[in-house]
Amino acid sequence: MNSETEEHRERPVSEEVAALIARYDTRVPRYTSYPTAPHFSPAVDEATYRGWLAALDPAAPLSLYLHVPFCRELCHYCGCHTTAVNHDGPVLSYAETLLAEIALLDAALGPARPAVQHVAWGGGTPTIMPPAQMRAVMAALRARFPFRPDAEIAVEIDPRTVDAAVLDGLAAMGCTRASLGVQDLNERVQQAVNRIQSRAVTLACVEGLRARGIRRINIDLMYGLPFQTHDSIRETVALCGEFAPDRVAVFGYAHVPWMAPHQKLLPEGALPGPEERWAQMQATEDALLAAGYVPIGLDHYARPDDPLTRAAAAGQLHRNFQGYTTDTAAALLGIGASSIGSLAQGYAQNLPAVPAWRDAVRAGRLPIARGIAITDEDRLRRDIIETLMCYGRVDLAEVAARHGADPAPLAAAAGPRLAAMAADGLLEWDGRRIAVRPAARPFVRNAAACFDTYLRPDQTRHARAI
Fold first, then answer.
1. Which regions of 258-339 does DSSP assign to beta strands (E)?
2. Where are the domains of the chain?
3. Mean of the pLDDT values across residues 226-249?
4. CA torsion through residues 404, 409, 410, 415, sign
């Protein structure tokens, strides 16, 4: 019997917390949008999207998201739209199609277009794309869109795929923020999830980025992985302290093998249960708070002087598909297979399969697969949910007033569930104001779900709350 088993013979949380976990550790959305993606439909098509693009306000800022759905190998925990490739052929072809999609967007927008204030590259592994192609894509965007002088260019990075040429390419394309996947630095955990990444490799990447002027560094960590322990998590956070990241995102592993079949390769018997996940989450937070980071929203942490912390203090924090952000753009255009755009009228998602997306673009069509047009009621509820997700509190009357709505029906519908959460000590609720208690912050998604009229109790595709 190993020390891990010996350590966790006793319940890792109190009986009171265990009872709350049993009651509230349900499957709820992460609320990076509202309505959430499972409720998108083919009712939003290319024609719909073209109409939305034509109505963009050229005076309002714009954000862009580029999805690169390729990796050198799949991490067994991954739930992203991505495919493992062992040569550059598919990636080079994908880059060409990205350029073609950008040209289609350019034509659809007409002569007047908003200025770009934020670009995010996600995946998959965006840096699997050769530097010349990444630079070409960014050059095409800059040629077709005005960019604000202080525009942030953020790129997700797998440090294992980075060399000097990649780092030079990131600097040349104007990257200002890098988000490094780390997850866990314990070797046993890494072997179980098929992601071997040493501290030295990650540190070399961080130092290489900073040496080239890319100084804004984010680190992504996970809890709930096979063989993780309190000690391994604390050790990972301590080692990440050597990287001195500006921000740390901590995500709970979502085990959904019916959606991501490669997750079946994980040793399921080594996955922690909900109580142990809670304890791991708390161990991570305790270590980050001790290191001087400030909690932001549900699962982000930032240095006290970081723009994210300042935005939260000023009431200007936002949440979108990339998580918590200072980005204030009202419109986000998704580029690449499976990417999602958010516009004033609703959400639009590209075809998720690369071949179908590529064929549509090559045929001169904007590759929209589905989406949802949102109503005034949706906008009101989205505002409430985003405020809760960002700050853990919301004044229903205040938000309703911004939308010219009556808060009474909202309070009446959500009141019974909020009252139950209040009785359990998770939040304060006076019929108008909600304030999630700091210790109950992991349950903020449950509070947000009280305002989700689309959510059905039997839905299983969402991650659990803990």
1. 294-296, 300-302, 318-320, 323-325, 331-335
2. 3-27+375-449, 37-373
3. 93
4. positive
Give the list of residues 6+ apart from residue 260 with CB closer than 8 angstroms, or none: 78, 79
3-class DSSP assignment, residue 376:
helix
| Backbone Cα Rg of the chain | 22
Residue 126 identity = P
Q: Report whether 351 contacts 360 (CB < 8 A).
A: yes
| Closest C-alpha to 21, from 297, 290, 267, 252 | 252
- β-bridge partners, 9: none
Determine the CATH number of domain 3-27+375-449: 1.10.10.920
The CATH number of the domain covering residues in 37-373: 3.80.30.20
- Which of 310, 308, 313 lies closest to 218, judged by CA? 308
Q: How far apart (Å, rounded) are the C-alpha atoms in residues 140 and 159?
A: 26
Contact (Cβ atoms closer than 8 angstroms) between residue 94 and residue 68? yes
Reduced to 3 states (helix: H, G, I; strand: E, B; else coil), residue 209 is helix
Q: Is 346 a residue whose pLDDT tops 90?
A: yes
Q: How far apart are CA 236 and CA 233, in angstroms?
A: 5
Which residue bears the tokens 């630095």? 185
* Backbone torsions φ then ψ of 340, nearest 5 degrees: -120, 135
435 DSSP assignment: E
Q: What is the mean pLDDT of residues 442-450?
A: 96
What is the pLDDT, as a whole number, of residue 464?
81
For 334, the token pair is 């998704």
Report pLDDT digits (tens) over 447-464. 999 999 999 876 656 778
For the question of whether the overall pTM of this predicted structure is more than 0.90, the answer is yes
208: left (phi over 0), alpha (psi -120 to 50) or beta: alpha
Q: For residue 258, which phi and psi values (nearest 5 degrees)? A: -70, -20
Taking each continuous run of H as one helix and of E as one strand, the counts in the chain are 16, 19
Distance of alpha carbon 201 from the chain centroid: 24
pLDDT at 6: 40
From start to end of 238-313, where are the E strands? 247-252, 294-296, 300-302
